Amino acid sequence: MTHRRFVLARVPAGALTEDCFRLEEAPAAEPKEGEVLLRSLYVSLDAANRAWMQGATYRAAVEPGGVMAGGALGEVVASRHPAFEPGDLASGDLGWQEYAVIPGKALMKETRSEPLSHLLSIYGITGLTAYFGLLEVGQPTAGETLVVSAAAGAVGNVVGQIGKILGCRVVGVAGGPEKCRWLTDELGFAAAVDYKAGSLFKSLRAACPQGIDVYFDNVGGDVFEAALFQMNLRGRIACCGAVSGYDSAPPAHGPRGVPGMIVVKRLSVRGFIVMDFFARRAQALAQLQAWVSEGKIKVVEDVIDGFAKLPAALVGLLHGENRGKRMVRVA
Amino acid sequence: MTHRRFVLARVPAGALTEDCFRLEEAPAAEPKEGEVLLRSLYVSLDAANRAWMQGATYRAAVEPGGVMAGGALGEVVASRHPAFEPGDLASGDLGWQEYAVIPGKALMKETRSEPLSHLLSIYGITGLTAYFGLLEVGQPTAGETLVVSAAAGAVGNVVGQIGKILGCRVVGVAGGPEKCRWLTDELGFAAAVDYKAGSLFKSLRAACPQGIDVYFDNVGGDVFEAALFQMNLRGRIACCGAVSGYDSAPPAHGPRGVPGMIVVKRLSVRGFIVMDFFARRAQALAQLQAWVSEGKIKVVEDVIDGFAKLPAALVGLLHGENRGKRMVRVA
């Protein structure tokens, strides 16, 4: 049996382009002892995919010639691991390929539910990142002002919606007037700031007349700096990602005000990745399911059909095309 | 009765110079209801004094024409506050003046002990800053690598000595080979890095072969950046001060790697000021007293005689002249 896969043809020097990937036909491997063969159903697109190409992060770098890495939801076709049998659903780093052979211990079993895409969005890494990052790291309380960047993105929109549930005044930072309108009109954010419109500092100040208590940072760079200077005493910054620096040369300098503002305002600035909190995954999923079923969280997905569209889907994501969770439906 | 005082003659544009201060003779005020008249005994010199001239921080800015602010130890001469009577010792922001009238509620009563200077060093803000900042914010455990900057300074040397008591491998960053030798030979630090010698990044790496678990930051700037890139997973940065930026124009940019390194390494970067922990001051003082009496902490002081030397003492401190806690003996 052969299948399609994308390999990284070359490491992008600047902004990612589609020709950094090469489509190949290859024989699908057989699972060895402890391994599982899966058919990919949905591949998740994440800004972090771009960071993986640049070097080691919390995982090893994706090397040229290797299959492009990526989270995905798959269905078990054959299993030589006792925890999985054909027909099971599982998620993990299946990569950009139609079939994948993965050690069973690197897979997370998923409970079948409809629509399946939710297992990669609100009930996947995305939703859990928003949930744990906001509750455990940001620790907002009712009445506080919460600012979230990349607010129309996969994690950001969920962070904002959870913030609203907790009684925060939620302000989103996003690119372009349409996304900003969508955040206020459709998702009910108190305000939205268009970082592409210029005068970011003033716009953010106008949107946060009481200052910022919690900043959930997905982007780093200028937005981080603007937020930093407007944090309130004992404010918290949850560092989730730094997408502003992923798709270009590393920034020559970091945000001004570090560490001065951190001292003066006694801020807590903390990085996290969602796996740090996986011991409490079941509890978090139950809460997210309740909020979704009560209509308190709108699940926002951007599903693109066709395996071949993966490179374009990632390039577009890095240009901010998507609202909510972007993924490619493979089959 | 007249007394001497220094007023801020002008706000320094760049590095502080002695002519930014003006010595005046002025009548000493009488205490009103709730106030206390004190005779100043020792004035504390702190890098933060310089930051106060530049604008509001955790306190209002020192304004030109006003008495220069500064922590000091004084003896009560007259009191219209029920908690104080003549002969009592108290510390607070008495400013650079021989006599000060201060609201009683802004003073901290001190227990008379010998030498009195210890009430401004190890048992004062300095020692408590080191104690709480390291234990509560840095949270080191035995066997971890602790890096402290401005390590020969008032707070830094105590941080390092407490780190040793806790079983950490302590590495100090200081300016010049003499201070570095002193840190290793006299205070028993495992290693010391001279930030003035160039190749800071490499020297720090060589001094920390296991990476850095806790970085106690007094300086910000280049040393912060060098430490940031060498932090271990789940490392902690205690942000105590940013002296590298106090005595010059604000830096054009912050450290690279913010927030990227914070995310990837899941760091916690937290600012504090010692007053945040004052509820547990008595307990901290008891611990510090025990360590001093057991010979586990050497109290390092740099006492300058003569009220008139205050401006020179502060300028010199900002140039890194001092080892340990610098203060001026007034009377």
Radius of gyration of chain A, whole Å:
20 Å
The CATH level-2 architecture of the largest domain in chain A is identified as 3-Layer(aba) Sandwich
* Whole-number count of domains of chain A: 2
Percent in helix of chain A: 25-40%
**C-alpha termini separation of chain A:** 16 Å
Helix tally of chain A? 9
Largest interface: A-B, 37 and 37 residues
SSE topology sketch:
Two copies of one chain form a homodimer.
Chain A: E1 2-8, E2 21-27, E3 35-44, H1 47-54, E4 72-79, E5 89-92, E6 99-103, E7 108-110, H2 125-138, E8 145-149, H3 154-165, E9 169-174, H4 177-185, E10 191-194, H5 200-207, E11 212-217, H6 221-228, E12 231-239, H7 260-264, E13 268-271, H8 281-293, E14 301-305, H9 310-318, E15 325-329
Helix pairs in contact in A: 2-3, 2-8
Could you write a compact summary of the structure shown?
The structure is a homodimer of 331-residue chains. With 331 residues, the first copy, chain A, is an alpha/beta fold.
What structural keywords apply?
alpha/beta; homodimer; Rossmann fold; seven-stranded mixed beta sheet; 331 residues; 15 strands; Quinone Oxidoreductase, Chain A, domain 1
What does this structure look like?
The structure is a homodimer of 331-residue chains. By secondary structure, chain A is an alpha/beta fold. Chain A has two domains: 2-121 and 300-329, Medium-chain alcohol dehydrogenases, catalytic domain (Quinone Oxidoreductase, Chain A, domain 1, Alpha-Beta Complex), CATH 3.90.180; 125-275, Rossmann fold (3-Layer(aba) Sandwich). Chain A is built from nine helices and 15 strands. Chain A has helices at residues 47-54, 125-138, 154-165, 177-185, 200-207, 221-228, 260-264, 281-293, 310-318, and strands at residues 2-8, 21-27, 35-44, 72-79, 89-92, 99-103, 108-110, 145-149, 169-174, 191-194, 212-217, 231-239, 268-271, 301-305, 325-329. In chain A, the strands form three sheets. In chain A, strands 3, 4, 5, 6, 7, 14 and 15 form a seven-stranded mixed beta sheet that branches. In chain A, strands 10-9-8-11-12-13 form a six-stranded parallel beta sheet, with helices on both faces. In chain A, helix 2 (125-138) packs across helix 3 and helix 2 packs across helix 8. The longest helix of chain A is centred in the middle third of the chain and has 14 residues, at 125-138. The mean pLDDT of chain A is 95. Strand 13 of chain A pairs antiparallel with strand 13 of chain B, so a sheet runs across the interface.
